[in-house]
Design a protein that fits this description.
12% of the residues lie in helices and 41% in strands. It is mainly β. The strands form six sheets. Strands 11-16-17-14-15 form a five-stranded mixed beta sheet. Strands 1, 4, 7 and 8 form a four-stranded mixed beta sheet that branches. The protein starts with a helix and ends in a 13-residue tail after the last strand. The N terminus is likely disordered.
Length: 306
């Protein structure tokens, strides 16, 4: 029995030693790829640029990251091999390059991006569910840009639709309003399919949409895409009159803290807060909150009617 026990423990020790050697060898074969992304004309670092790496022999599997505020990016634990590195940033021409990753080496690749000649063409995704220029979209679409959102004072996020062509917004209170494109307004909310990053915001009990129920602050919205016309082929029967898609900011490309304060008559107070941080090249988070208070309607009941 003692011999069997010693033999068994020896076998476990050999297996554990072999596993340790395999893990050590595997770790030694891993390496690091880093670099910077700059503007080709001004040499200024470009934060928020998308960087994607994929093996030349296996393009189906890839890894993503974004450049920091200093235009730097980093990939850890890449297996040895030949990679294609793709760089893209809205407003710039996309570019790519190849690099050979060797075991135990730290490779560096920096690149300069050139400004996109047609800057006025926004990139949209809602009309066809893939990235395309607004002028190439098969539907009538409008984009509320980040600049337009920043320049407006809004009670609820859907207030940014007031200046969109073809969208009629009816204000029913300080923080309540309905919007329509191809139909009449309804007291039960808007009937345009309203989404937040492709998630429907429909209120199940009434089958409508209310801007005050959008689960994020205005500081969390990157831009808004509005499709005027039927979109049922892509989004179902609820999109018969149009689609409104609120696209959120990525915590990778919009790090930092944003705070906005607004006030006015009727004790109107509107506070919006957002903080985003990236921890490494795989994990990032954002925290946002909103506080809205006001005296919307005043009661003027006649005591004689009681």
């Amino acid at each position: 029995m003692t011999f069997f026990r010693n033999t068994f423990l020896a076998a476990i020790f050999v297996q554990f030693a072999a596993l340790s050697v395999a893990i050590t060898s595997f770790a030694q074969e891993r390496t690091l790829l880093s670099g910077t992304v700059q503007d080709a004309a001004s040499q200024v670092p470009l934060p928020g640029a998308s960087v994607r790496v994929a093996l030349v022999s296996d393009t189906a599997h890839s890894r993503f990251t974004y450049t920091t505020t200093r235009g730097e990016y980093r990939f850890k634990e890449l297996a040895p091999g030949r990679y294609t590195v793709y760089f893209s940033l809205l407003g710039y021409l996309s570019d790519s390059a190849r690099v050979e990753i060797q075991a135990g080496h730290e490779e560096t690749m920096s690149i300069q991006l050139h400004i996109q000649p047609l800057e006025e063409q926004d990139v949209v995704v809602t009309a066809s569910r893939h990235e395309e220029k607004e002028t190439h979209s098969p539907a009538s679409i409008s984009v509320v840009t980040p600049k337009e959102i920043r320049e407006q004072v809004t009670s609820v996020p859907t207030d940014v639709l007031k200046n969109v062509p073809g969208i009629d917004v009816a204000q029913e209170g300080i923080a309540m309003g309905t919007y329509a494109s191809r139909s009449f307004h309804s007291v039960f909310g808007s009937d345009i399919l309203t989404m937040n990053d492709y998630h429907s915001l429909e209120v199940p009990a009434i089958g409508g949409f209310y801007g005050i129920l959008l689960p994020q602050s205005i500081e969390d919205i990157d831009h808004v895409e509005v499709v005027r016309g039927p979109g049922s082929a892509l989004y179902g029967p609820e999109a018969a009159t149009g689609v409104v898609n609120f696209i959120s900011k990525s915590p990778f490309s919009s790090q930092g803290t944003d705070l906005s304060v607004a006030g006015g008559e009727r004790d109107y107070t509107n506070l919006n807060f957002r903080n985003a941080e990236a921890i490494g090249d795989r994990f990032a988070f954002s925290i946002s909150g909103r506080y809205l208070a006001a005296n919307d309607w005043h009661s003027a009941d006649d005591p004689k009617e009681d």
